[in-house]
Amino acid sequence: MVTKARMQPKVRDREKTERAILDAVGRIILRDGLGAVGINAVAREAGADKVLIYRYFGDLDGLYRAYAEAGDFWWSVEDMLEAAGDAPTLGAALKAGLRHHAAEMRKRPVTLAVIAAEPANRTALVVALEEVRERRSLELMKAVADRYGAPEGADLAALTALLAAAIDYLLARARTIRVYGGVEIKTEQNWERLFATIDAMIDGALAPARPKGRKRP
Amino acid sequence: MVTKARMQPKVRDREKTERAILDAVGRIILRDGLGAVGINAVAREAGADKVLIYRYFGDLDGLYRAYAEAGDFWWSVEDMLEAAGDAPTLGAALKAGLRHHAAEMRKRPVTLAVIAAEPANRTALVVALEEVRERRSLELMKAVADRYGAPEGADLAALTALLAAAIDYLLARARTIRVYGGVEIKTEQNWERLFATIDAMIDGALAPARPKGRKRP
DNA sequence: GGCTTTTGTCACCATACGGTGACATATACC
DNA sequence: GGTATATGTCACCGTATGGTGACAAAAGCC
User: Is A119 within 8 Å of B116 when comparing Cβ atoms?
Assistant: First the structure.
C-alpha cells in the first residue's frame, strides 16, 4: 500500500500566515489582475491552505477589506498640500498637485491595477479604494478653498475630476497599451507632453470668462 | 428503462443561428460585462449548442472578431465632421465634436461596457475596438488639420486624447457609480456642468501661450 | 500532567468551465 | 430516388473553482 507523504507542517504563526496571504493578494493583482484573485489562487500563491483564508478573513470580501486596510494605496492630503508647497496661485497649485498625483500613482502599481479593473470588477477592494478617492478629493477641495479661496466663475471640482479621470485612466491604460488617440502614454517623458497641455487647460478653465468673439489674435 | 426525451430539434438555419449567437454576445456584455462572455454562457443565452460556436466561429476569439465586425461601435468621421458642421473656429469644432462623441457613446452602451472592461480584459474584441479608436482619431486629426490648419503652439492630439480619455472613462464609470471626485456623472444634465468646464479648458489650450506672470487680474 | 484552543493539512463535494467525439436527420445536389 | 453534406443534439472528458468536514498536532492554560 502506498502511503501518501504528508506535507511537512509549517511552524504555527498566524501573523506570518496572514501576512503571506495578504502579500499573495498583492502579487496576484500585479501579475494577473484583480480578476484573477480567488480563494484557490491566493492560497496557492501564499503557500497556505485555503481553509486558513476562510478562518482568518471570512470570505473573499473580508480578504479584500483586510487588504485594503493594510495597504498604502493613495497619497495623503498633507503630502499633496506639501507638494503644492508655496504655489502663489490656485492654478500653480493645481498643476503641481496633478503632477504629484501622477507621480504617486505611478509609484503604486497595485493601485493602478485596481483602477484598471474598477469599472468591470466591483469587489470590496474596489469599493474601498473608491471611498478613499472620494474622501481625499473632498478634503483636498476644502483645503484648497481655505488657502486660495473659491475661484471666480470656474468649477474647480469639475476641473479636477476631469483631469484626474484622464490621468488615472491613461496611466491605467499604459499598463497594456502604448498609444492612446495617437499620443504615447507609456513613459514619463511622453507625459511631459501631456502635462504641458494640462497646464494650458488649467489656465483656460481658471481664467475669468472671456467675452465672446475675442479669441482671434 | 428511462429514455431521455431528446430536445425538439431546431429548424436548420445557419444564418439565423449565427445571428442568435452574436446577439447573445451583446446581451451578455450588456447584462454581465465582457468578462462574463464565454462559450458556455453564450451557447446558453443563444439557445444554441456550444459545438455550433466552435463550428461557425472557431473559438472565442473568432467569435469576438465576428462580433466586432458585425456591430456598430463607433461614430464615423463623416458624422463627426458633420456634427462640427460650420464651426467657425477650431475651438468651436472641438467643443461640438466632443459633445457629439459623448452623445454617440451614450447611444452605444455595449461600447461603453467594452471600454469599461478594456484595461482588465484584453480580448480580441477589445483589441478590435482599440484599433477602431486609433484609426478614427488619426483620420479625424487629419481632417481637422485640413479644415482649420494646425493650431499654433497647441498640442491638438494631446488635448483631444486627454479630453476623450476623461469622457470615455467617466461615461464608463457612470455605469456603476454616481459620483466621481465629488461630481455627479450619471445624468445628461450633470454632464452640462462638465462640458462647461471642458469648453473653458479647450479655450485655454488653444489660446496663444501667455507670457508668465500675467495671470493675476 | 491533562485539557482546551489554535493552527495547519488533507480529502472531499457540487458546480462550472472549455473542449471533443459520436450520432441523428433535414437539406442540397446528382 | 439515392447520396453526401450541413446542421443540430447529446454525452462525455479533464480541469479549475468556491466551499466544508475531519483530523493531527503544536501551544496555551488549569
Answer: yes
Distances (CA, A) of B35 to A120, A166, A180, B30, B147: 8, 24, 22, 11, 41
Number of domains in chain B: 2
Measure the CA–CA gap between B155 and A200, rounded to whole angstroms: 10
- Cβ of A162 within 8 Å of Cβ of B165? The answer is no
B62 and B81 fall within a common domain: no
Q: Is B136 on the interface with A (CB under 8 A)?
A: no
Same domain for B149 and B55: no
Residue that is last in its domain, among A70, A97, A112: A70
Paired with A2 in beta bridges are: none
- Residue B44 Cβ < 7 Å to strand D: no
Nearest to B199 by CA among A169, A209, A194, A164: A209
Tens digit of pLDDT per residue, chain A (217 long)? 444 566 777 788 999 999 999 999 999 999 999 999 999 999 999 999 999 999 999 999 999 999 999 999 999 999 999 999 999 999 999 999 999 999 999 999 999 999 999 998 999 999 999 999 999 999 999 999 999 999 988 999 999 999 999 999 999 999 999 999 999 999 999 999 999 999 999 999 998 765 554 444 4
| CA gap B75, B182 in Å, rounded | 30
Q: Which nucleotide is nearest to B55 (CA to C1')?
A: D7
